[in-house]
Amino acid sequence: MDYDGWNRVLAEHFFAVREAAAPVYLSVDDALLAELLTSQTQAAAPFPTAAKDFQTAIRSQVFGRDPFGGIASRARRWRRHGAAGNPPFIALLAATVLAASRMNRSENTAVGRFSYYGPLRELLGLHEGSGMPDGYDVVIPTLWDHLKWWLTEHEQGRRGLPSAIPHPTQVNIGWSLSQAVLVGSDRVQVGLFLSAIGAQPGDSVPEAELLARFQEWVRLNRPSPRIQRALASPELRPILASILQQELAHYDGLPRNSAGLPCVPLSLTTDAGGFPYGIAARLPSHLRLESLSLNGDVIRVPSGAEWLPLTPPDQKLAPGSALELAADTTTLLLPARDLYVLQANDLVGKWTSVNTAEIGVPHRVLVRTAFAAQAEAVMLACGSDAVRQPRRVQVPPGWTLFSGYTPTRSATVPGVLGPLTPLHQQLARLSGGLRIDGGRQTYLLGYAPDLVLPATPNDHPRAVTIDRVPLAPVSPAATDTITIRLADLVHSAGEHQIEVGNRKLIFTLVERYRESVAPPLLALPPRSDKLATIPSKIQNTASPSARAPWLPPGHLSGSLFGSYQRAPLPPMSLLRLGGSIYALGANRLAAQLVPEAPAWIATMDHVPHAIDIEPLLDALPFQALWLLQGTRSGNARVWLAPAVQTGTYGAPSGSWKFLSQADWRRLTSGNITTAAVACAQDWTDYTSGK
Question: What Å distances lie between residue 137 and 64, 72, 175, 313, CA to CA?
Fold first, then answer.
């Protein structure tokens, strides 16, 4: 392939449109080049062949006394002319990352500032001279900045988010080094780690603490050799710490793969702790799944299900091995372990594996026999009565089963046996309370959660503040775990912030919350600051398959509060994208509507609710015939506007602005879907001027 061919293939591989806006790593190595060339030529391409083909393509554009000038000029023209098509510099940036990946090919090669430019010059064919090539320190960081602009501003995160970051000491090459530390598949491992420590969306944890916890998690699990090499390298550890912090900043509560698709961890299941073993998926509340396609079978997910027992592909599933199942837009993962802590699960009707033991709860423990004696000692150290080994339960060779483990306190136990101690690796967290289910921590006033402070490696008092008011120093108790009742300390509605050292936890208390039965959507009545259920006559228009999504405030719900409903609820897939709302009238009149939610609910981004837009329609100087909602994908959806009586409402909650006739043409000439088949002809007549 030539340079443009490689550039296109790399751009399509790394920056395809994805489901969630997640960081993308331009992690290129020789193995990936061979895979991409094989996919293009339909013939197996050995590593040397692919590397030579890519090298030839790069050298056709990078040469001479100003080696990067040609691509830099193309990049400027591309951005100046609207960034049409793929960025023309992806292949060059990939080459700089490839050079970084080759730095560690020899174990005797030191990772330092002078070990990078040798592989880079060899790859680019710049044999004259040594050290940094001319223009590298200006052009390459600028190209990384172009990529950041394209992903965040031009593409609005649809093709991923930039992940390249500068090195703490090596400013020029840090961008490329940061892409060589992890490959895309390593994102799943980082997501599993964040899930294991109890991280929540919006959490803030210092880099040093994250790295220390990650290193301990690696001792328990079996991540890729690349992650282990990064942890062992003094030069790459700071970059890895920054990457962990970056992943935490974009963490939405689910591990995700390189394409941004969610990954659901599986649990090992068993009737008594022995054969036969099965699997079950725990479905997070914010993962809306109606079905799973697994091994050619479509499995319906019951509405509101928290656990979903599954039949493993191998009926002789045994502990100790990893399992990865592809299920359409979701991947199911069972990590490989040397120890399983099992807890009775009423929803599954079996014992299921959990991340860590829980104080006061009976467990069974399945552990490799090599660690059995140590495990028994740890269980006694955690305050449990003497455990026993069931004789009538058949376990795999090389494994030992214990029953009767009920811990009463935590302890500091690293490595494989860590999950035996309650709250192992866990961050300070919120627990209990009467929570309103959603992506954010929102609770009913008077029923705030408890603050749980897990065991720490030292016995220093923990500094805790609530809404910037410090509590008395909290010293570890005999159990090494401290629970603080926030309901006794926080008595006002609104947002509250807890600080435990450098970690911040934010939760919101609200006065009232009332759920509707079906669909799970809330509406805001006119001129009211309280929530109410949608009238049944509107609820009944929704089909069971058209469940309402989580809508951010200010976005059209499609279920208009009032007495007029002429179109069914729009599909969840379109509404989830959000977008602007427009009212269209006769004679090519158009106005953009900007409804507003009350301040107290505006912070509840993930609580489903609809905004009453009829006061805005009433305030318009023309009669709205259609409502149009644009989406980020460039499509649009239209509904017949509800009939409103002039002067019925007071001041509208929100604003509107007139659009030009050119805007009207732009709105009505795009890719538009009508809300109902019956409206299609009406819409055609409207846009044609009839």
Answer: 17, 12, 11, 52
- C-alpha–C-alpha distance, residues 367 and 387, integer Å: 13
End-to-end CA distance of the chain: 54
- Where is pLDDT greater, at 574 or 656? 656
Residue with tokens 């036969």: 276
pLDDT of 90 reads 94
**Count of all residues that appear for the chain in the document:** 690
Spatial distance between the Cα atoms of 541 and 82, rounded to a whole number of angstroms: 43
Residue 538 CA to its chain's centroid (Å):
33
Q: Are 332 and 281 in contact (CB under 8 A)?
A: yes
Q: In which band, very low, low, confident or very high, does the pLDDT at 644 lie, cut at 50, 70 and 90? A: confident
Bridge partner list, 345: 350
Cβ burial, residue 241 (10 Å; 0-12/13-18/19+): buried
Q: Extract the tokens encoding 204.
A: 């803030």
**Of 508, 524, 520, residue with least CA distance to 596:** 524
- Pairing between β-strand 635-640 and β-strand 671-674 as defined by DSSP bridges: parallel
Q: Which of 23, 137, 36, 44 is nearest to 94 (CA)?
A: 36
pLDDT, tens digit, for every residue of 276-329? Answer: 898 888 877 666 666 777 766 777 777 667 788 887 776 678 898 888 887 777
Percent of the chain with pLDDT over 70: 77
* Among 421, 369, 371, CA closest to 395: 369
What is the sign, positive or negative, of the torsion defined by CA atoms of 250, 255, 256, 257? positive
Would you state the structure tokens that stand for residue 510, as one six-digit string? 């609200």
Amino acid symbol at 604: M
| Contact indicator for 342, 365 with CB cutoff of 8 Å | yes
Residue 319 CB burial class (10 angstroms; 0-12, 13-18, ≥19): buried
With H, G, I as helix, E, B as strand and everything else as coil, classify residue 289. Answer: coil
Tokens 């214990």, located at residue: 402
pLDDT of residue 442: 83
SS3 content of the chain, % helix, strand, coil (to 5): 30, 20, 50
What is the H or E stretch that residue 658 is in?
Answer: strand 654-658
Residues near 640 by beta carbon (within 8 Å), at least 6 away in sequence? 566, 567, 625, 626, 627, 675, 679, 682
